[in-house]
From TrEMBL, chains A, B:
Protein name: 2-hydroxyglutaryl-CoA dehydratase subunit D
Gene3D superfamilies according to UniProt: 1.20.1270.370, 3.40.50.11890, 3.40.50.11900
Family: Belongs to the FldB/FldC dehydratase alpha/beta subunit family.
Native source species: Desulfovibrio ferrophilus
Xref: InterPro entries: FldB/FldC_alpha/beta (IPR010327), YjiM-like (IPR047678)
A matching Pfam family: HGD-D
Amino acid sequence: MSDAHREMWERLNLDLTAHDGLLEVLGKFYGDIYMSQDNRLKGMEYMDFVLSEVHGLRIKELQEAKAQGRKVVGTFCVFVPEELTLAADAVQVGLCAGAEAGSDLAEELVPRNTCALIKSFIGFKLARLCPYLESSDLVVGETTCDGKKKAYEAFADHAPLYVMEVPQTKSVSARELWRDEVLRYMAQVEKLTGVTITAERLRTAIKTVNDRRRALQRLTALRSADPAPISGRDALLINQISFYDDPHRFTYKINELCDELELRVQAGQGVAPVGTPRLMLSGCPMAVPNWKLPYVIESSGAVIVGEESCIGTRNTRDLVDESGETVAEMVDALVDRYMKIDCACFTPNTDRQDNVASMAQTLKADGVINYSLMFCQPYAHEAMKLEHFLEGTVPTMSLETDYSMEDVEQLKTRIEAFVEMVS
Amino acid sequence: MSDAHREMWERLNLDLTAHDGLLEVLGKFYGDIYMSQDNRLKGMEYMDFVLSEVHGLRIKELQEAKAQGRKVVGTFCVFVPEELTLAADAVQVGLCAGAEAGSDLAEELVPRNTCALIKSFIGFKLARLCPYLESSDLVVGETTCDGKKKAYEAFADHAPLYVMEVPQTKSVSARELWRDEVLRYMAQVEKLTGVTITAERLRTAIKTVNDRRRALQRLTALRSADPAPISGRDALLINQISFYDDPHRFTYKINELCDELELRVQAGQGVAPVGTPRLMLSGCPMAVPNWKLPYVIESSGAVIVGEESCIGTRNTRDLVDESGETVAEMVDALVDRYMKIDCACFTPNTDRQDNVASMAQTLKADGVINYSLMFCQPYAHEAMKLEHFLEGTVPTMSLETDYSMEDVEQLKTRIEAFVEMVS
C-alpha cells in the first residue's frame, strides 16, 4: 500500500498495525477464493481492483468528497433511502461488518449471543479498523432486528448515530410510520449537508439508484442461463461492492460486464459445465469478506445462481416509481418501494416465500440453501418456514454459521451431501 | 383432582396423562418452594388455594363464563389492553409459558436458540397441556421481540391468533401507530363478543384494572419496610396470579393481604431478620411456575424486595388516567398509559434505567440482580447497560438462565457470593 494511504489511515485514527494485519489476511483470503477461479469474466478485473483498493482509493475518494464539503453517510441496512442521501449531495456507503475483527472487544458492549454481523461492526469500531466508519459524518441505524436495535444504543456512544424506526407489519398505519421516518431522515440529511432536497435533485437521485438496480437486475436475469455464466462468488462480490462504490461508475461497469455476459450466454459458455448442480442462497446478508459459504458451496461441485439476501436481490428487485413530479409524490414512491422489502423483520412476511420460490424457478435452481447467521432470530424462524413452504417444489437445506473458519469441514460435509442429493 | 375437573380437561382436549404428570410436578415444586417458608402471611392461604386450583376451579369459572356467552382472550404480554377486553365483557387471562413442558415439540416449530418462555408456550400448545389456551376464543400476540413476533407466525397455525404491532420507539408517529393498533384491537374484541364498548363500560373497566394496579402498588410500597414483611417468592406469586384470577376478587384479596402486611410492618415483624440482605430482581418476566431464581436467592441468605419485570412493577406502576368522559378520550388515556411501559423492545429505553434506580432506592435494595432468559436479546442488552448505569449506586449482577434445573448449583454459588458481597 502507498504511503499516502497510510497517512490517510493514520489521520482517520485507524490502528495501523492491526489494520495492516487485516488487509494482509483479506488479500490472502481473496486470492484463495477469487483468483483461483477459472473462466472468469474480463469485467471482474474492475471488481478485483476495487476490492484491492477497498480501504485505499475508495476511502481517498470519500476524503476528497469531504474536502469539497460533501458529507458521508454510513449504513448497515437496505432500508436507508440512498435516494435522499444522494439528493442532499452526500455519499452513502455500507459499513464494515463481515469479518471477525475485534469480536472480543465487541462482547464488552453487546451480549455473547449476538450475531456475527453485529459483533463485527461493533468490533471494527472498537478496534479502529473501518475507514468507512471513520469517514462517516452520520451513521444511520434502523430497528430491523432486536440485535441491531439494542446494539445501536451502545454503539451511539462511539459513532454519530441516527436511528430510523422500521415498522414490523405492512399495515396502513405501519406505512404511515415509515413515511414519517423517511421524512424525518430527509430533514436530518438536509440539516447535515445544508442542501435542500428539490424535486430536480430527488428525481436525479432516484434515477441514479434505479439505474444501479436495473443493472443488477440485468445481471440477475442473465444468471438463469445454463451453463451459469458467472460464479456465485463473483456475483456476491458485485453486490457487495454496490454498497461501497460510486453509483454512476459502478452501474456503467456492471452494464459493461453484462454485455460480456450476454456474449457468453449466446456462445453457451459458462464458469461450470452444463448440468452442474445450480444452488440458490437465501437468508442473511453476506458482507465483505464473508465469502466462506459461497466458496465452500462452489468447491463442492455446485454453482450458485442467485442470492436472495439484502446483499443480493432483496436490495435490487424493486424500483422506485419514477413518475412522481413533486417532492411529496417522489417521497411517496420511495415509501412504497421500501415497504416492499421482504425483510424477516416483518410479520407476516409471506411475500418472501413467494419471492424465493419464483426466483428458484426463474433461475432454474436445483436447490435452495437457507443461510442464517447464528443468533439471527428473524431469519432462523423464516428458514424453518421456508423449508416447509418449498417442500415438494425444490430441495432445501438450512445452515447456521458465523464468521469463524472452525466449521468449514462440517459445512463442506453437509453441502456435499446436499449437492449429491440434488444432482 | 375431582372427576369433574378431569372431564373438563378431557373436553378441552388436554393430554390427560401428561397433564397429570405436570400437575404432580407442579404440586411438589410448589410444596418445596412455597410451603416450606416461615412466617407466611395468612393472606397467602388464598394464593395457595388459587394456585392449587390453577388448572381446576379457575378453568371451571372460564367454562361457566363461556357457557353464559362470554368470550375468553388469552395473552402473553402486558401490552394487551385488558381494559378493552373487560369493556367488551370478555375475560382476559395470561397463558401458560413458565415450564419446560413440550420443549422438544416446540423445537419443531421455532429455532433451538429461542428463549424458554417462547418454547414453553409453543410446547404447552403442542403437548396439549394449557387449559387456558384451550379455553381461549382469541389469543392476542404482539411484536415486542423478534422471538415472539416470528414464533406467532408458526403459532397461528395452532391457535386463533391476533397480533398487535407494538412500536419500537416512543416518537409521536410511534404513538399514532399504537393508537391505531389499540383501536383495531377494540374493533376486534367488539366483533368477537358482539358487545359495543360504550363510555360507561370502558370507564368501569378502566377502574377495575386500575384498582388491581393500585392494590399491587400498595403491596410494592409496603415492601420498603425492614424487616421485609413478605417474601419475594410470595410477592412474585401474587403478581403471577394477577394475570389469571378474577380481577375484582383478586383486588379484594390483595387489599386484605395488604391490611395484614400493614399490621406486620407496624409491629416490626417480617419474614427475615432486620439486616437480611435485600435484593431486587430486574429483567425478564417469570411466569408460573418459574420460581427457580427467587427460591435460590431466598435460600442464599437474602430476601427479595421487588420485581422490576412484566410480572411485577412494569405491569402495575402506571395507571390509566380516569378523567376521560368519551370513549375517544379514554382510548387516548389508554394509549398514553401503555406507551409508558418501559419494555426493552423500545429504543432508547432510558426510562427503565431511571425506574430501576428509583425502585432500588425506594425499596432500600442492597443489590440488583438482572435476570435474562437465555437468548432474550432485548433484556440481555439492557442488562449490560443497566450494570453500567447502576455502577456506584447499588451493586448489580447479571444472570442468564432458562427453565431447566441443571444450573441451580451454579446459580447458587454465584448468588451466595453476591449476597456476601452486599452484606
